[in-house]
Amino acid sequence: MVANIVAELKAGGFPEAADVGEQTELLRELSLDIKHSGLTSGQCAVGLAVLNRINECGLDAADIGRWPAILKAAESEQGAKEFVEIVYRIQEAQEKMGLTLEEADDKLHELEMKTAELEPALKQIKDYRHEIRELVKTRDKITPVASSLEQKYGLLSPV
């Protein structure tokens, strides 16, 4: 793989390379680093693909050290899977709503503020429901008494 690139460089296959000697030396150092790391070329290719995908997602590969801590915060393999599923659901929601993560976060804060504003009205509705239940109980208690009184009144009053 590296030998092919070196051969192309020597053959002038990369005209944009200003200093072929410097580029060749860098490739040789890279080749030695890969050899000393014990990685196969396939593993390196996968690693590069992952790094490219990380960059495409707008993530900083330097933060990779924090990712295991974040996933470990789930405390179990099942928790980690649930965490990843939540991330996928967030991504799906973003796509569905057409919002960036920041816009979705702003929308969430806006909805939280509206919820806080509506909280007193919700409490009042709950109080009214409780009052209605109490009034229904009172009505149910009074109805037989009122009916009895109406019958007695009917007997007492001449028609």
Give the helices and strands as they follow along the chain: HHHHHH
* Radius of gyration using CA atoms only: 37 Å
Summarize the biggest pleated sheet.
none
Distance between the termini: 115 Å
What is the arithmetic mean of pLDDT? 82
How would you name the oligomeric state of the polypeptide chains in this document? single chain
> DSSP strand (E) fraction?
under 5%
Number of helix segments? 6
Structural class: mainly alpha
User: Which consecutive residue ranges, at least 5 long each, have pLDDT under 50?
Assistant: none
Strand segment count: 0
What is the approximate shape? rod-shaped
Overall helicity: over 70%
List keywords for this structure.
159 residues, single chain, mainly alpha, 0% strand, rod-shaped
Your description of this structure?
- This protein has 159 residues and is mainly α.
- It has a domain at 1-59.
- The chain has six helices and no strands.
- It has helices at 2-10, 20-37, 41-56, 67-72, 77-97, 101-156.
- It is rod-shaped.
- The mean pLDDT is 82.
Blueprint (SSEs and pairs):
Layout (H helix, E strand, L loop, with lengths): L1 H9 L9 H18 L3 H16 L10 H6 L4 H21 L3 H56 L3
TL;DR of this structure?
With 159 residues, this protein is mainly alpha-helical. The chain is 79% helix and 0% strand.
